[in-house]
């Protein structure tokens, strides 16, 4: 595998990430499934739990879309709160894990395989949409996802989503001391790309600054109503990739945007 910062198209990104998540899904669920819980809504590696945070407000009786739902843990929790939820994800293998959990728990979450840049739902069909690190950190065109979410939300509907905090792009993705020294430009939007030995992209993430996110949200016709930077809680020692107590106590690791469709 070769790691680089280089341009990559929208189609290459989707192709690479679909295959990557299909290949990584088993390990991902093995490593993080217990922390996420079969029916639990964890917003981020900091462990912010929707059961306490209530960033979505009262969901009972609401029709909710979970974007980039993975194995559907968040959607299953919302269903338990009385919402009617549909999940969409690019990866068939992630959705098979959702089905596995359905069969084990008896709580069925309807899911659809699709790309968040082209949501397969009709206009104004949801009251709420949410995403915990689903799709938005990975897609080439985050504006397209935001426009699609706006389209499928009813007027007055809300979208809350978490992504890696943009400041993290200025630091090495290392949970240890090396990850504390900024060594690259925060303003460099060149995507992070992993390639096979013959140069074919196998994984991609796209960087947006905080200002870029605000601009994309506004351009999509949404109103930004809140921005949360969860603090690392005392006693939380779990490391998730580059997210660790060492770094989390010093710099933010997650940004959660709360948006409204007017
Ligand atoms: C970090 S996981 C988050 C899933 C879940 N919220 C969780 O915490 O496990 C990211 C998910 O986004 C999905 N994803 C990536 N790109 C996507 C796209 N373009 N459209 C829809 N889902 C996408 C991946 O397949 C993966 O399941």
TrEMBL record:
One family name in Pfam for this protein: Methyltransf_11
Gene Ontology annotations of biological process type: methylation
Protein name, entry field: Methyltransferase type 11
Methyltransferase type domain location: 65-161
UniProt GO molecular function: S-adenosylmethionine-dependent methyltransferase activity
InterPro entries: Methyltransf_11, Methyltransf_Superfamily, SAM-dependent_MTases_sf
Keywords, comma-separated and alphabetical: Methyltransferase, Transferase
Gene3D superfamilies, per database record: Vaccinia Virus protein VP39
Keyword match Methyltransferase: yes
């Amino acid at each position: 595998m070769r790691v680089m910062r280089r341009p990559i198209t929208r189609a290459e990104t989707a192709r690479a990430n679909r295959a990557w998540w299909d290949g990584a899904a088993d390990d991902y669920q093995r490593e993080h499934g217990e922390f996420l819980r079969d029916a639990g809504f964890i917003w981020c590696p900091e462990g912010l739990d929707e059961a306490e945070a209530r960033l979505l407000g009262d969901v009972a009786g609401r029709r909710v879309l979970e974007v980039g739902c993975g194995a559907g843990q968040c959607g299953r929790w919302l269903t338990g709160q009385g919402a009617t939820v549909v999940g969409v994800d690019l990866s068939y293998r992630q959705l098979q894990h959702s089905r596995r959990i359905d069969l084990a728990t008896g709580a069925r979450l309807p899911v659809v395989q699709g790309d968040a840049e082209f949501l397969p739902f009709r206009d104004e069909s949801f009251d709420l949409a949410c995403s915990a690190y689903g799709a938005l950190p990975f897609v080439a065109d985050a504006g397209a996802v935001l426009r699609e979410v706006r389209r499928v939300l009813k007027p007055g509907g809300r979208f809350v989503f978490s992504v890696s905090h943009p400041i993290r792009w200025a630091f090495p993705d290392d949970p240890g001391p090396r990850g504390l020294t900024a060594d690259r430009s925060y303003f460099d939007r060149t995507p992070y790309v992993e390639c096979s030995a013959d140069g074919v992209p196998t994984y991609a993430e796209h960087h947006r600054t905080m200002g870029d996110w605000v601009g994309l949200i506004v351009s999509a016709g949404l109103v930004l109503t809140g921005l949360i930077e969860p603090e690392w809680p005392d006693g939380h020692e779990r490391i998730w990739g580059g997210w660790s107590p060492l770094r989390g106590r010093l710099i933010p690791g997650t940004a959660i945007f709360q948006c409204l469709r007017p």
